[in-house]
Design a protein that fits this description.
Chains A, B: GO terms for molecular function: thiamine-phosphate kinase activity. The structure is a homodimer. By secondary structure, the first copy, chain A, is α+β, with helices and mostly antiparallel strands. Chain A has two domains: 134 residues, 60s Ribosomal Protein L30, Chain: A (2-Layer Sandwich); 165 residues, Phosphoribosyl-aminoimidazole Synthetase, Chain A, domain 2 (Alpha-Beta Complex), CATH 3.90.650.10. Chain A has ten helices and 15 strands. In chain A, the strands form four sheets. A seven-stranded mixed sheet of chain A has the order 10-12-7-13-11-14-15. In chain A, strands 3-6-4-5 form a four-stranded mixed sheet. In chain A, helix 1 runs parallel beside helix 3, helix 4 crosses helix 6 and helix 4 crosses helix 10. The interface between A and B is large, with 67 and 67 residues. Strand 2 of chain A pairs antiparallel with strand 3 of chain B.
């Protein structure tokens, strides 16, 4: 296969021949890719299911990410939604739409990125669809199951006095990486087989911009915290749209307010300050409003293993978010813009 | 809401407020839209899952279909894949990407079309995702389950001597409708609340062009034949890419050839001849190579109820399709072009 063969020339069968070998096989899969639908044996009939898309120009830029990272992110954002319900993900199906001159390597690398993250969390890719579009897009549906009669972890279970806890050591990384991507001072080849690091201008290269861009391109949260938190959390979601907006969602669903503790966020802010100075940005905004972290965000009486506290739910006005008791300015990340 | 309010102005919450009321609720759904993922109780843990996209400009034209029909077709093409495995569909998740100036009515009508066809076959819509794109696209994932240890109906079970049977009274309707759409002689308002019929030039209006265009825009196959055919069929798929191409797939998977019987297709051809004459097309091509019918296509010893015979599997060269023993010209419908 010539390195620049285009997908319309090799056809769906040719692409699948390059994509399918990258997919690990799960013994629970009775029928994998190639028939009208896949058939798999879930651990329980209580299906957990979610779907999410990434679209070129809206959710990623070809100039600052790679096809492999797009695959990773598309997988993770779906796996995180299953995990946030307290369920282990088991399988993914993948729909990719692409321009007719898209190189086959794009399909291959997206598949590799999806398969990599799926395998890391115990899931397999069991089916998909390839089609044409002017823009590259990847839509994944992830499924898992809840054992026995175990209740799903919903958003509405937080109690006044519960801590707001987050399943990761840092906040604001994805927003910082997005600022790097949009600065015009970083570049990554979309078909980069080595998957980075991105090329940066000298000033950015002296910061952790490359690592933050990679986290933005393909966040890597500890998803096992989602199904591992079990009885220890009273409400849970994944952090998609920023601490303030998603914190407000947990609070509103539970009929509560939430107060963020600035002292518990200070290290997050300070770590981002060198990069923020270079880019002329305010690191607190990244920490409070940055989305696409996909860390587990939960309510709990005591801090569960792997989580840390960032605030506390209070019986204040439903859905109100404050920072050390004071109003928070700014708005969360809106996926739909 | 002003009739021309655009979706970026009313936001995701505003759109969902218009879309969600259209979705019937299934008591088997524990958690519906609004949390990170949906939770539903399948009738069995043996999940059947498939995904498929429709993209503006590639899979439909805004000038000759309506948003409601796009929703119907997006649902049916996925429901048909589940049905073809011998399973009843139970639930759908829906990802819609659209330009920022897309009218809210588009989302509403697509949802209505999806919900209508889902409900007709016993399925519900349990979740989704809304995002931005330059082109409108709808990606659906459908799930169902197989009871007990019932085997899925795969493509590779046909036996020499089996009849090739199709679950519908006519073939070539979708291809004929596509020819109408591409003729430039038919038009339908994309937000047509009455859902047609399309406006046709007088010559086309004297044919069944409007009905064929509607079938192309939103085919309405009897999907219950898929899970009802049960032990009566040895292999099954849904007719997506044309009788010749899909017949070849069943034959190839089963290590057989298949001979189509021209006498059994004659009525299909003759019914399409008046329209074909107007459009200067060959109706036999539509019948042999027209895709997107989504009728059940199966192999069976005797004709199951609701099906009719169109050919017979033979021990000839693997995957060869003949017509009355003679070679077939032309190629099937390629979704990926």
């Amino acid at each position: 296969m010539a390195p620049h063969a285009r997908h319309a020339q090799i056809g769906e069968a040719g692409l699948l021949a390059r994509m399918l070998p990258q997919l690990p096989v799960d013994p629970r899969t009775e029928v994998g890719p190639g028939d009208d639908a896949a058939v798999l044996r879930l651990d329980s009939p209580r299906l957990v299911i979610t779907t999410d898309s990434l679209v070129e120009g809206h959710d990623f830029l070809r100039t600052t990410t790679s096809a492999r990272r797009v695959g990773r992110k598309a997988a993770v954002q779906n796996l995180a939604d299953v995990a946030a319900m307290g369920a282990r993900p088991q399988a993914l199906v993948v729909a990719i739409s692409a321009p007719s001159d898209e190189p086959p390597s794009t399909f291959e690398q997206i598949t590799a990125g999806i398969a990599e993250r799926a395998a890391a969390w115990g899931a397999s890719v069991v089916g998909g669809d390839l089609g044409g579009a002017e823009q590259l897009s990847v839509t994944i549906t992830a499924v898992g199951s809840l054992p026995g009669e175990e209740p799903p972890i919903r958003r509405d279970g937080a109690r006044a006095g519960d801590l707001l806890v987050i399943g990761g050591p840092r906040l604001g990384r994805s927003a910082a990486g997005l600022a790097v991507a949009l600065s015009g001072r970083a570049a990554l080849a979309f078909d980069d087989p080595a998957d980075g690091p991105a090329r940066l201008d000298p000033e950015l290269a002296a910061t952790d911009a490359a690592v933050l861009l990679e986290w933005h391109d393909a966040p890597d949260p500890d998803l096992a915290l989602g199904w591992g938190s079990g009885g220890a959390v009273s409400a849970q979601m994944d952090l998609s749209d920023g601490l303030v907006r998603d914190g407000a969602r947990l609070a509103a669903a539970s009929g509560l307010a939430v107060d963020l503790d600035p002292a518990l966020l200070a290290a997050d802010v300070e770590t981002l300050r060198p990069l923020a100075s270079v880019l002329g940005a305010e690191p607190l905004d990244w920490v409070l409003h940055g989305g696409e972290e996909h860390l587990m965000l939960a309510a709990a009486e005591a801090v569960p293993a792997g989580f840390r506290a960032v605030g506390r739910f209070t019986p204040g006005p439903e859905g109100l978010v404050t920072l050390g008791g004071a109003p928070v300015s700014g708005v969360g990340f809106d996926h739909f813009s």
